[in-house]
Amino acid sequence: MNIILLGAPGSGKGTQAEKLVQNFNFEQLSTGDLFRKNISEKTQMGLEASKLISAGKLVPDEITNKMVEEYLKNGNKENIIFDGYPRTINQAKALKEILVLNNSKIDKVILLDVEEKILLERLVGRLICPKCKRSYHLKNRPPKKEGICDFDNSSLETRPDDKPEKIAIRLQSYLSDTSPLIDYYKTEKKLVKISVSNLTSEKVFEKIREALKL
Ligand code: ADP
Fold first, then answer.
1. Is the minimum distance from the CB of 84 to ligand 1 under 6 angstroms?
2. Model confidence over 187-198: pLDDT tens digits?
3. Residue 122 falls in the annotated catalytic set
4. Which of 47, 49, 122, 166 is most open to solvent, judged by the fewest CB atoms within 10 Å of its CB?
5. Cβ-count burial of 202 within 10 angstroms (0-12 exposed, 13-18 middle, 19+ buried)?
6. CA 210, CA 125: separation in Å to the nearest integer?
7. Which domains, and CATH codes, for the chain?
8. Is 26 strand, coil or helix?
């Protein structure tokens, strides 16, 4: 089963993808993580993407689609969680074509729906482990030792695009470019909406399991 986690920045896609990978036989494909990997390895694509990402803008569809196509060419085509992809209608159409060529498809799209006020609180104060990618929050989910990852002792970092002015640009791009995907996948009868504003991440995970019958 292939699924898409759809939702604004800060809606918890990464956290839920991590739970699905730990508990079931899923693999996470996060285009944000793939871009950050390319940036830290200073690949040509990483250099091109880096400026856009730290400005809070989307990477062009052509580059993003090619990266996903390459990823799928060399690995599994089943039990994938698409996290942060597709983010535009063009990407959704490209993904459909790539999967059809591999005799595969998207089975369900989980929309994590959060109020904007809560998104802002979550993103301001987010800390990320550069090694294992786990995310923390200064107030809501602090690490045991200040500034240090609980799992691998790496120094936690703030993502350059988590600065308040960049967050506003990312939320705007979610509204204009990504939210049309909600209707797109409704029409395809694949969308399940979960209102997550007042739920713990454990409760959200339960709802996802129910939706996927896992
Ligand atoms: P978040 O969901 O918190 O915004 P991600 O890690 O998914 O974070 O993405 C970080 C940045 O990487 C995005 O703001 C964007 O610049 C770029 N990016 C990630 N996925 C895509 C995509 N599918 N299309 C275009 N740009 C993307």
1. yes
2. 999 999 999 998
3. no
4. 47
5. exposed
6. 31
7. 3-114+179-212 (3.40.50.300)
8. coil
